[in-house]
Amino acid sequence: MSDTTFWSSDIRERELRMWTGLGPVGYRVRNVIVSILLMMAAVGTFLLLSTLVSLYPGTGTVVRGPGDRAVQATGGACARGGPISGYGFGYWWECDAILRDGDGGTRVVRVGSSVLTPDDLGRTVEIRQSCRDGDCEYGRAANQWLEGLLLAVGRLGWFLMIILGGTAVVPVVRAVVGAPRYLRLHGRLFPRKADGSAG
């Protein structure tokens, strides 16, 4: 009973005060703006995380396996992406690479994150290849401990992005149904958990 009282004195009063003070239209506009800002924060987190991963020269593989090896690659045509792309902020090169297999065969792959650049056109350089279930990643030789740190930071970043994106749904619900209906819905979904941080 004390939880319900606490919830009523916190979230309920806050939402009804804004509903009354701003009016139905102002309340909804405010929540739409809050949702947009949270989504922008989630996208910004994704781009910053992508930038961090792209700056790292390795393959991103922490546990070595049979698919991890050095390969000889001859640089081919390159295309530059940016200033905002799947690699994050900045400009990044994606280049064709002709890989030579141990049996003398060749194959062409696309290598991103500026592992190869136009300076490597026609040159043969050694890069790392990491393959799992037919899916391969390419990079330069790098410290394995740094790869473990990158993995930890990456998972933390993805978790934060999911939290921000999920939190953005709450103000959307408030904007659609309004404060009175939102409070009734919240009360039905969380009758015992009345933490002020839940709304």
TrEMBL record:
Pfam families: DUF6346. It comes from the Bacteria. InterPro entries: DUF6346. The keyword Membrane applies. The chain crosses the membrane at residues 32-56, 156-177. Keywords: Membrane, Transmembrane, Transmembrane helix. This is DUF6346 domain-containing protein.
